[in-house]
What we know:
By secondary structure, the chain is an alpha/beta fold. The chain has 14 helices and 24 strands.
Amino acid sequence: MSTIKITGGRALSGQIRVQGAKNSVLPIMAASILSGGETVIHNCPRLTDVEAAISILRHLGCRAELRGSTAYIDSSAMTRWDIPDVLMRRMRSSVIFLGAILARCHEARLSMPGGCELGPRPIDLHLSAMERLGAEITERGGDLNCRAGRLTGGRIDLAIPSVGATENAMIAASGAGGVTLITNAAREPEIRDLGDFLTAMGARVHGAGTSTVTVEGGAFREHTEHTVIPDRIAAATYIAALTAAGGDLTLTGVDNRDLSAVTEVFRAMGVELTPSGDTLRVRASGRPNPPGTVVTKPYPGFPTDAQPPLMAAALRAAGTVVFVETIFQNRYRHVPELARMGADIRLDGRVAIVQGVSALHGARVEATDLRGGAALVVAALAAQGETEITQVRHIDRGYENITDELSSVGAAAERIDGKDETDGNERA
Ligand code: UD1
């Protein structure tokens, strides 16, 4: 089993280049099969979730590979329309392939994603969006069978602005005949990026990144190139790391416009943030100020994915910090692990109350999910003594070389590689 060892208490100084966005590249890789041609994706992060998407593409009969930070996909020889259970379990967001497979093959067979570590993982909105475009869906023994003649454009009113359902609807609509209107769409920057990709491929997409998106299916180009936007959650994690450790760090390759909900909270904690072009300089020292109550919300609100790393940075706040998690039911699994490091956190349903402590201490802790694992890394940078983090495969799903990045800016962090097994319960 791979582990990360961190000895805390060392200030960070230098530069980190922020990876491309995981939550952009996965739907873009899925959408690439619509064209039946070649897709080249730049700024692709090297993550196990990206490897999982490559495995799905290869299973479908596509050629797919990652060279450096560029993914090459050729879907001209695609032969299959099913995703086996083992691949669905490797990555919960595999459901994002549904709209693309259905539009391309008029048929799709996937297993139900079921529950996951952050709580129940419904896909009802994804399925009703497909039905609105003309698909017939049946479920038997946990398998979903979806069929359609050619999908046709329609009106999709989402009950909640689900990121995945908005993306699935946009992808399917791009392969459908006619115009689709999506209302109450999610507004995350990754949706804007998907819209740009679909447009580059030949669809006509308007309003991606706002609550109302229209999509008109188009004739796809043989060859599409796209550069993925920067990962705002990875950026938020590195800001949290600097807040925990103190120092002077410059993040490069960021889009500061997408970070405002995050930077507002860190500023309230006394962190000095100086944006300039596509860089962000971050300076902090001493115990952070308490930023008050942090409520996770759909974009442009504070992102649920940045809640665990922020909480880790707030453990040594000079006062009380309240978190209210409104997106996922089970997003505090890092809390008992942080408590092993001396954190004082009280949990009450969706509310977590952090009482800042003057010092944390190293401990042996286990990453329980991707962002919860990142929170342990952040806390370890602030803790006295050594922290050993196990189950780092969760962290590998979303961070490219986090240990190397942090040691390059002065952290005492090392990764010890071992054989990892998966439990098949992964998610964003
Ligand atoms: C995406 C992100 C994830 C992020 C989340 C919220 C990817 C790969 N993952 O996940 O990192 O945490 O957005 O910003 O981009 N819901 C339903 N029915 C559905 C779909 C969702 O009830 O059919 C609910 C969910 O249970 C959740 C809420 O909607 O409570 C938001 O989920 P959603 O926006 O769909 O998240 P994901 O797309 O799964």
